[in-house]
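Ticket #4471: structure export looks truncated?
Reporter: QA, pipeline team
Priority: medium

Steps to reproduce: submit the single chain below to the structure queue and open the exported record.
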Amino acid sequence: MNIRSRAALLSIVGLTCIGGDQVTKWIAKTHLQSGATQSFLGDTVRLQLAHNYGAFLSLGDSLPANWRQVIWSGGVGCVLLAILGFSLFAKSLERSLLLALALIFAGGASNLYDRIAYDGYVIDFLNVGVGWLRTGIFNVADMGITTGALIVLWSAVRSYKKQ
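Actual output as written to the record:
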């Protein structure tokens, strides 16, 4: 796949993921009250506005603000630039891995935008589960990152089986 095709795929996935994430976050910000929970589908889906100062499942949210800024904005920004560079310039890259990296990049970029725009936090609002088995509160960008990570894992298992 040439660089132009890779850039096109990255752009399409990026615009779709980032656009969908930012639109749903805007809807959550304007229609959900902080702390209040709305339940749907027999409490399988909950909508609850949360400001996440940490990473996945609020990891690191208790760190001092300056450390969170360095790690979650500066560090993540560097990782995203590395993913983008690798995605565009790696000599051989399967389409599935490129799609995975595009999803990870787009989700990470959208959450990074939140951290910059909202003084260090990411807007989360989705929670799913059955009974006591529930996820943490997350957003559409997190779904992109998770889907990308699962595709990477699936590709690695598939590659290992071929060997």
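Status: closed, not a bug. The export was complete when the record was re-opened. Leaving a note from the reviewer for reference: The chain has one domain: 3-162.
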